[in-house]
Amino acid sequence: MAEPEFAIKVTGLTKTFGDFTAVDGIDIAVPRGQIFGFLGPNGSGKTTTIRMLTGTLRPQGGQAEVLGTDVVHHADQVQQRIGYMSQKFALFEDMTVDENLRFYAGIYQVPAEEFAQRREYVLRMADLVGREDELTRNLSVGWRQRLALGAATIHEPELLFLDEPTSGVDPVARRQFWDLLYELAGRGVTLFVTTHYMDEAAHCNQLAFIYRGRIIAEGSPSQLRHSQLDQRIFDIAVTDADAALDQLSGTSGIDDAYLSGASLHVVTPREESLTADDLRRRLIAAGFAAPTVREVDPTIEDVFVNLVTRHR
Fold it and tell me: Containing domain of residue 251, as a range?
């Protein structure tokens, strides 16, 4: 029997809690072997969607196939073939690294004769060799994150769900963690990653933005950057970005303005004749010394802010 083309195929998936609709009739298609990024602010429906796709939460409506199987009616047939890493570490802090790996191998019914080889791979992948007997509570957040990934992949899943796996982790550890995800993807594992870090979107093959339970855009990072905005983006470096934001917000020729890292981003209509020099002169006239203004290509963050503003 041929493998299905899609690791995940969702149509009209819906979940309500009382009068609140957490997921509102979404469609998702994730090809096998891809890194699929599911982006959205906190409370947008990301975790609820993952819980339905892993078979731990029953939807009110719609269909969901995971690895070719109806996960709504046959969750038990899917759960041994997938891995799940939650946004909160599901590790036992009073157990050692090795004890956690043995526990999860038991949960996933890894045969005893295969455990030693899989344990060795996980320890090498997560760079935990030499830390096998260390208590989990004594590991840094970054190391616990690696261990959690190892525990979620000890049974060699075909599909791995990661729910905001880098939340609260420093930038260096985040980058190292994504190196591990690339390694898994290179081995043919399909990855479904939720995040509210827009910079992580660039690591994904395909993206879907969810906002208030609805998919508001989808496509590759490049497609989204160049097809969703009919506006121009200016990056402004200025001493007091907060004050500059107050100064420019809502003024003539400006659709939107918001902080982006240490800079200020200003959005103008593409047909607007406003230039970088015009913005610089406005700021200087308002008392800001030597601002640097340049037009830039839109980032995923720019696209997302624009989409959310539009849907509000």
Answer: 229-311
CATH of the domain at 233: 3.30.70.100
Q: How far is 144 from 198, CA to CA, in rounded Å? A: 23
For the segment 252-270, what is each residue's pLDDT rounded down to a tens digit?
Answer: 889 889 998 889 999 998 7
DSSP code per residue over 193-236 = EEES-GGGGGG-SEEEEEETTEEEEEE-HHHHHHHS--EEEEEE
Asked if the structure places residue 283 within a domain, the reply is: yes
Q: Is 162 a domain residue?
A: no
Rounded Cα distance between 102 and 105, Å, is 5
Q: Is position 109 within any domain?
A: no
Q: Tell me how many helices (H) and strands (E) the chain has.
A: 10, 14
Q: What are 65-124's pLDDT values in tens digits?
A: 999 999 999 999 999 899 999 866 678 889 999 999 999 999 889 998 899 999 999 999
Max CA pair span of the chain:
74
The first and second tokens of residue 308, run together, are 């959310």
| pLDDT mean across residues, the chain | 90
234 in any annotated domain? yes
Q: Are 41 and 30 in contact (CB under 8 A)?
A: no
- Which residues does 140 contact at the CB level (< 8 Å), separation at least 6? none
How many domains is the chain built from?
A: 1
